[in-house]
Amino acid sequence: IVRILCVTNMYPSPERPGSGAFVYQQVQQLRRFGHSVDVVNIVGSQSKLNYLKGIFDVIRRTSATRYDIVHAHYGYSAYPAMFRLRAPLVITLHGTDVLGNIFERLATRVVSHFADAIIVVSEEMRKRIPGIVIPCGVNLGAFKPYDRDEARARLRWPKDKFIVLFPFDPTRPEKRYDLARASVDRLVQNGVDAELMTVINVPNEEMPWYYSGANALLLSSDYEGSPTSIKEALACNLPVVSTRVGDVHEQLNGIAGTWICPPDAATIARSLRAAFDWSQNGEFQGRAAVAKYDQALTVERIVGVYTDVLSNFRARGVGRRLLRSGG
Q1: Three-state helix/strand/coil letters over the chain
Q2: CA-to-CA distance for 84 and 135, rounded, in angstroms?
Q3: pLDDT digits (tens, 9 = 90+) for 162-201
Q4: Whether the Cβ atoms of residue 61 and residue 5 lie closer than 8 Å to each other
Q5: Bridge partners of residue 41, in order along the sequence
Q6: Nearest-CA neighbor of 221 among 88, 82, 118, 124?
Q7: Cα–chain-centroid distance for residue 161?
Q8: What is the spatial distance between Cα 234 and Cα 290, in angstroms, rounded to a whole number?
Q9: What is the side-by-side strand order in the sheet with 89-93?
Q10: Per-residue confidence at 78, pLDDT binned at 50, 70, 90?
Q11: What is the pLDDT of residue 20?
């Protein structure tokens, strides 16, 4: 059993129930495996001073409890995590912290030098900051397809429209809501009865109903790490149209009924129209392709990283004690 302190700025809360669902799912899977996990949730979006408060939380927690591992999720979260006592530091980098603006990239690069191990969620990120590639997993027990008519009745969505799901914050510029909007507008102009459905701040356990009720997932981002939304959509047998970002090519490789497009509204619109056909005829089967992203397999790999880090950390401790004793 490993005792873990998770330090993150992405975690569900009553105000933001959809935030950091992939971190929450990872924590839950670790607990299902019998490991002990406590969480320091830094709500940095409210105030940057919360990172300072996070430092004191980490010091207080690690002085009261002897954790085996402190695991920070996201580059900024690693700064408070650096102040832990008596435990090695693992950092998982998720995307914007490595691929975002220059200040964020620089901050992440600096803090990564203080980690005992770095996990990155895509090969593209590993080229920027060396680390172990472990994409975020999906709880395949929770993310499964439901009947579309039942899902739409539950969500009060129109029965006869083609629904394009956009489960991203439209205010984040890298998510390119403008491109998604323009793509669906083209469909409408060409006589297709389509609607772009933006979904944020929905509890993670409700999301399978949204994937099941839609006709296609659209990811139009400028950059991503390893977008969990695509894995979730595939697990619910929802066709996917995406720009070429992060590890999307690897996730969608060889899956009929999925499209990777340039950031061009006309091309995306044509791909969405083709995706509607796949969703209507009921032939799309993406679920089998995400078996390799099962959350349980992902967490097994992460525990393997913990084991290696602990082994090295304890070996260094023995070495220091021998030096002090003159042995």
Answers
A1: CCEEEEEECCCCCCCCCCCCHHHHHHHHHHHHCCCEEEEEECCCCCCCHHHHHHHHHHHHHHHHCCCCEEEEECCCCHHHHCCCCCCCEEEEECCHHHHCCHHHHHHHHHHHCCCCEEEECCHHHHHHCCCEECCCCECCCCCCCCCHHHHHHHHCCCCCCEEEEECCCCCCHHHCHHHHHHHHHHHHHCCCCEEEEECCCCCHHHHHHHHHHCCEEEECCCCCCCCHHHHHHHHCCCCEEEECCCCHHHHHCCCCCEEEECCCHHHHHHHHHHHHHHHHHCCCCCHHHHHHHEHHHHHHHHHHHHHHHHHHHHHHHHHHHHHHHCC
A2: 26
A3: 999 999 999 999 999 999 999 999 999 999 999 999 999 8
A4: yes
A5: 8
A6: 124
A7: 29
A8: 7
A9: 36-41, 3-8, 69-73, 89-93, 117-120, 132-133
A10: very high
A11: 86
**Of 230, 219, 221, 164, nearest in space to 197 by CA:** 164
- The mean pLDDT of the chain is 93
Angle (CA) 195 199 201, round 5°: 165
Asked whether the predicted pLDDT for residue 159 surpasses 90, the reply is yes
- Beta-carbon contacts of 135 under 8 Å, excluding residues fewer than 6 positions away, are 121, 122, 226, 231, 247, 293, 298
pLDDT digits (tens, 9 = 90+) for 226-254: 999 999 999 999 999 999 998 999 999 99
pTM, whole model, 2 decimals? 0.88
Rounded Cα–Cα distance for residues 150 and 170 (Å): 27
Q: In the beta sheet, which residues pair with residue 5?
A: 38, 70
